[in-house]
Amino acid sequence: MTAPLRIGPYAIERLLGVGSFATVWLGYDRALDAHVAIKVLAENWSHDLRVRERFLDEARLLRRLEHERLIRVHALGELPDGRPYAVLAWADGGSLRDRLAAGEIPVPAALRLLGEVCAGVAVLHRHGVVHRDLTPGNFLVGGAGPDGAEQVLSADLGLAKALAAASGLTARAGTPGYMAPEQDDPGAVVDTRADVYGLGRLGIRLLAADPTGANPTSPDPHRRTPGLRLRHDVPAAVAAVLAQATAHRPADRYPDAATLHAALTRASDPARLTIATRPVPRQPPPRPGARRRLRLAGATMVAVVAVGAVGAESGGTGSARPVGGTYTAGPLTVALP
């Protein structure tokens, strides 16, 4: 592929990436002394009006939503051969796919990145938009946010649609392994819960004990991965959240990205984890005269624990754990004479 010398007023320095429908180049704006990313419709799709319109729709949607968690669109233009291009903000930190390829990301950093991704998708959901293609390559690491930490930006909305238009008789859309099962059914309802599934799969990819085994490459979106295990220092409560996010039935998942983000935040909160794993202090044996009262109180305590354990979220650590199953705050033993 021959690099163009210029695209519009921008000098081209190098190729940043190649996708199915577009190429992305690093450009330099001499007047502003700033770099930009320039996304150009691929030559082999230049005569397909549907693909061309989808390319333009993506840029218009990003421009209309304009949010700090979404990649910013500066301008639209057209090459001499008629192909459209979009001038985007350049995120110099690369993509999440690049980060994963560089090696294992520590669990605290991976959870923070996953939270950033959820927050960005939640912006789309608040505006009635479903993304439908949540893969590591579609999220870029940009500059520091208000808290000084790196921000993750949603960068590719090529398959995003308004909720009203995302369902019904539409073409199969998404990336195998990250697609929700219903996305493979042209007549199924596709809503924010499909994105929740994709976010769950992305979380599993970030936190897997064996990243190569977690890399979804199967063309069958219904393929199960019963042996998939998370790293030993991933809190059990986080594993439970990811299991619910990737439930096969949409009704069993979290309703949207904001709810999933809140659940992940609770599950990974160090204060909650400390409380969940705190040992139960031993009590001195009761006096003989208090046995009857203790039996009644003990029965009440066991009932309360049984009810509370239904919704408990554990934060214990241990050996690598599977995604799925039941997660509780651990056993509570009451010694009665």
Which ranges are low-confidence, i.e. pLDDT below 50, for 5 or more consecutive residues?
166-171, 217-227, 274-283, 290-319, 326-337
Biggest sheet details: 6 strands, antiparallel
Q: How many domain modules?
A: 2
CATH architecture classification name of the largest domain: Orthogonal Bundle
Strand fraction: 15-25%
Reading the helices and strands in chain order gives EEEEHEEHHEEEEHHHEHHHHE
Please name the defining characteristics of this protein.
globular, alpha+beta, 10 helices, two-stranded antiparallel ribbon, single chain, 337 residues, Transferase(Phosphotransferase), domain 1
Which helices and strands occur, and which strands form pairs?
Blueprint: E1 6-7, E2 10-18, E3 22-29, E4 34-41, H1 49-65, E5 73-78, E6 84-89, H2 96-102, H3 107-126, E7 129-130, E8 139-144, E9 150-154, E10 161-162, H4 163-166, H5 192-207, H6 211-214, E11 229-230, H7 236-245, H8 257-267, H9 270-276, H10 291-310, E12 321-322
Antiparallel strand pairs: 1-2, 2-3, 3-4, 4-6, 5-6, 7-10, 8-9, 11-12
